[in-house]
Amino acid sequence: MHPPALHTYPTDSKSLHDEEKGHSGETTTVQEVGFISSGKEEGEVGYFEEDAPHGVKKFMAMRGLMSKKMLWFLWFGLAIAYFHFEFDNVCVWQYLPYATSSFGHHSLLSAVTVAAGSVAAVGKPVFSKFADTLGRGETYIICCVCYMIGYVLMSQSPTIGVYAGGYIFYNLGQTGTQILNVIIIADVTSTRWRSLATSSVFVTYIICVWLSSETVAQMLAKSTWRWGVRMMLFIMPTGTSVIVTTLFLGEKKARDAGLIQRKQIKWKALHLEIYEFCSQIDLGGIILLGGGVAFILVSCALAATLPEGWASPPIIASLVLGPIFLIALPIYERQFAKYPLVPFIFFKNSQLMIIAFAVFTHAIAAAISDTYKYSWMVVTQGWSTQHLTYFTYANYQVSTLAGILAGLYMFYFRRYKWLVVGGSALYTIGMGIQFQYRTPQQNRGLLIMVQIIQGFASGVGIQILATIAQFEFTHKHTASVIAFVLLVQFIAASVGDSIAGAMWTNFLPGFLRAELPDVDQSVLDGLFADIFTIPAFGDPVRDGMVRAYMTIRRRLTIASLALSFIPIICTVFIHNKELTDGHDLVTIPLDPIGAEGATVGQVIPFSNNTASESASKSSSDVVKQTQTVRVRI
């Protein structure tokens, strides 16, 4: 069995030229890289887009020279990277409530996650720009540095502020690794393979949940959360070493073959080099987007924790500056940005906009429901740390398995629409069952059943939308599309975290006071700040806490349930295109007659008749015709 491979075009000639024209109306010249690798069948030729960024050209040149052995190493490296990503994610997330409680600021859990989530959201397009500009391997190294800084700051933090700063750096490393993994999978798979390949590498996550649960339980029992974070300092470099080594070896092979040139820095014009790099990553757009998102979301999460609340001067200033930054963003991107952070052609694609809105509303609903779920379980159920971890991540385990099933369906049947619609509807059903969480120490089977239903729904529904979005654009936009969808998802999750945090900090203290009227306010403040030093079950104070937590949980679930209906409506309007063995679904083949006498690099316009005839053909016919195109030199 061969690993999933990038689609290539067989040809008898030494050169190949195709023109890709997407729904956005753009035109791209696709050229031969100029090699026949040992990893391909004889006569196959690799290709790249002429106007693609430098990082994309480097990877495509490297990809064409990859032997099957090196390609398997690439997939193995991806599996290891995903294993580290998930193991680290589960462990550090489990330590977070203990860390905030140890500083006496458990109520700031939402603020910390919102701040980190806001930075991580903006980091998606930033790291995609790095991947396209610098290269895939170089960007992995940047992610590793962010990881290391985050681990050191978190493990050594004397205050909640230092911990939050470390958590932000950690999230930058995590978000960069996440998007790089997805980008590389998209680089080397066809539309039929992509969903299955993406879901399959997540199989390591199933192992991670069980392993990390035991790790966290043992670490908290025999040591502290700080040593749990320090442990990651030794694990993280190992997790990314295989894929980074494979990428740089492939790049060296392409460089030795003369397919790519090492970029020379002009030290005498270093300021111009720096200016060009900042222009390519759109530094101005990053500042405006990051500042706007952070000002609004973080202020919403922090308002309830400040003595003056929403009237606090920093909150007012943030709520004024945030919208100003976001309003200035499209103006700057349209008038001044040479390489926009988010290409405007994205906003002209109706399918991408529908997908983005479905992802946005689903992520808000999920974040409102999940942000304080662990804390609610600690107080109302009294499960062990290990069992709480199993419960929390049962959703994601089932989602992984469901994603593989969805990928198999898409591979064999070449369709996807009704998977997404059905998954969105099933998620709402699961949220409705979750609404029954009204009594303390609820039946464990019901609790776990809801996690399974929601996990399966996400795996066959919303989870594959990010993959579907990639099919709407050519290869040079792949990284940007992935970043855009994940950016929307992370911003939405931060919005959901902010809503959950605002509801938690505004309503829960009042619910505690209503349920425990005879308890001193100082005691209530302590119970609100630290959920891990509370009385045992049977104590009147614990019983009052349980009732208060059930009330706030009910309100959070109502908000999530209402929002979960929107993705169902959105996904009904998604097209149900046929998946192909090509990289995307927008390629229109050249008219063989128009190609007569053409040379490599020459853009040949379509005749109206040929374009309309091509558009009316099925996707399989289009691919078949594209494969038979010959261009004479």
Summarize this structure as a short list of keywords or feature phrases.
4 domains, Growth Hormone, Chain: A, two-stranded antiparallel ribbon, 633 residues, mainly alpha, single chain, disordered C terminus
Q: Indicate the structural class.
A: mainly alpha
Major beta-sheet overview: 3 strands, antiparallel
CATH class of the largest domain: Mainly Alpha
* Strand-residue proportion: under 5%
Tertiary shape = globular
Give, in spatial order, the strands making up the sheet with the most strands.
2-3-5
Count the strands?
5
Radius of gyration: 26 Å
Q: Mind telling me which CATH architecture of the largest domain this is?
A: Up-down Bundle
What does this structure look like?
- This protein has 633 residues and is mainly alpha-helical.
- It is 68% helix and 3% strand.
- It has helices spanning 54-65, 68-102, 109-133, 136-156, 160-187, 191-201, 203-222, 225-256, 270-280, 283-302, 313-335, 350-370, 373-380, 385-413, 417-434, 444-460, 465-470, 478-515, 521-529, 540-563, 566-572, 608-616, 619-627, and strands spanning 9-10, 17-21, 27-32, 44-45, 47-49.
- The strands form two sheets. A three-stranded antiparallel β-sheet has the order 2-3-5. A two-stranded antiparallel ribbon has the order 1-4.
- Strand 2 (17-21) and strand 3 (27-32) form a beta hairpin.
- The longest helix has 38 residues, at 478-515.
- The chain is globular, with a radius of gyration of 26 Å.
